[in-house]
Amino acid sequence: MYDTAKRVALVKQRVRENTRRRQWRGIYGLSAACMLLFAVMMQAADVFAVQEQTAAWGVFGAMLLREDVGGYVLVAVVSFAAAVVVTVFCTRLRKNNKQQEQTKEDEET
Fold this sequence. Notes:
Transmembrane segments: 26-49, 69-90
Helix content: over 70%
Distance between the termini: 26 Å
Organism: Waltera acetigignens
Protein name: Glycosyltransferase
Order of helices and strands: HHH
Keywords: Membrane, Transmembrane, Transmembrane helix
């Protein structure tokens, strides 16, 4: 049989392990979501791009001077919005983790 201090230490260790697993699961989920979003955006760029733009393949800046660049602009705006959402989510997650660590430190003392 373990004494109370040993049991408390084991419980705290298991909580840390479960928290670490949950964080890694979140990281894997975000990575998968980013890859899926990337694949969808690549397909969207292919669908929206006009096939007659062969004259400006070498100079991508010249493509923006053409009239039918709506697909590229749409993909750029959606990419930016997705990046902002992921950044805000990660910032909030980090803030919550710091608050939890601070709470744990306060409880231990």
